[in-house]
Amino acid sequence: MAVMTPSETVTAFIQAIERLDIDGAVAILSDDVLYENVPMNPIAGREGVRAALAGFLGSASQVAWPVSSQFEHGNRVVNERVDRFKIGEGWLEMPVAGFFDVNDQGLITLWRDYFDLATYTDQMAALRP
Amino acid sequence: MAVMTPSETVTAFIQAIERLDIDGAVAILSDDVLYENVPMNPIAGREGVRAALAGFLGSASQVAWPVSSQFEHGNRVVNERVDRFKIGEGWLEMPVAGFFDVNDQGLITLWRDYFDLATYTDQMAALRP
Questions:
Q1: Would you call B76 and A96 a contact, using CB atoms and an 8 Å cutoff?
Q2: What is the DSSP secondary structure assignment for residue A93, as one 8-state letter?
Q3: pTM confidence score
Q4: Cβ atoms within 10 Å of B15's Cβ, excluding its own
Q5: Long-range Cβ pairs for the range A91-95 (8 Å, 24+)
Q6: Domains observed in chain A
Q7: Bridge partner list, B80
Q8: Are B112 and B129 in contact, with CB atoms under 8 Å apart?
Q9: Which residue of chain A comes nearest to B71, CA vs CA?
Q10: What is the pLDDT of residues B28-37, one digit of tens each?
């Protein structure tokens, strides 16, 4: 079996999120993963990330996170994305810069996203029934 | 004279900003540079960026933009920074993810920063006399 590159690992993680497959997504995270949404409090550990994903994926009926650029530098992967969530009848769209570290076991140990929090909350308020 | 790498070009640009040397900073930009503060409207052209820099550097008596990580991929440079501005007696601090493209003439053609706008505006409101 071919080992995935760090970039392929991040792509598999995002594809799991797009399938709303939380088990599949967190299986790609290390036990001690650190998840930083930069404007918010960091979340430590796989089970903490599971709860966070369940929260923000739970309000969406569909999710698409198209990646406009992604590349790796050693074990670090960087991407630019537009994280899209279907909320009710509309789509919330949020530009994101993501930084990921992937360990030698092919698990994500760091996930750090930079984005504008109000871009998310303002659209959520407008779209929620 | 040694040609700078794209990463060195970005470092020189940030160092000019830290010196509050707007002329030195914009000299490293292409005429048609595109400057995107992602939560805000994009700014096109060197003179537009000069005006933007004059605006947000003008309210600061000191500026430090420490870079925690930076690397290049072809002509693309990515960094993570904390952009710090001394406003009155206090320091405003804003985490930023920056994406830069550098052309073959060693000029920056794209500067795209991801950050949380309220992190800036809330601190600015608190610090301004």
A1: no
A2: E
A3: 0.95
A4: 14
A5: A92/A60, A92/A120, A92/A123, A92/A124, A92/A127, A93/A123, A94/A119, A94/A120, A94/A123, A95/A119, A95/B38, A95/B114
A6: 6-127 (3.10.450.50)
A7: B69, B97
A8: no
A9: A73
A10: 999 999 999 9
In DSSP notation, B75-119 reads TEEEEEEEEEEEETTEEEEEEEEEEEEE-TTS-EEEEEEE--HHH
Residues B79-89: b if buried by 16+ CB within 10 A, e if exposed: bbbebbbebee
* Residue linked to tokens 């092919």: A106
Would the CB atoms of B99 and A80 count as touching at under 8 Å?
Answer: yes
Q: Is there a catalytic annotation at residue A116?
A: no
The two three-digit tokens of residue A106, written as one number: 């092919």
Per residue in B23-56, pLDDT tens?
999 999 999 999 999 989 999 999 999 999 999 8
> Hey, what are B13's tokens?
């640009």
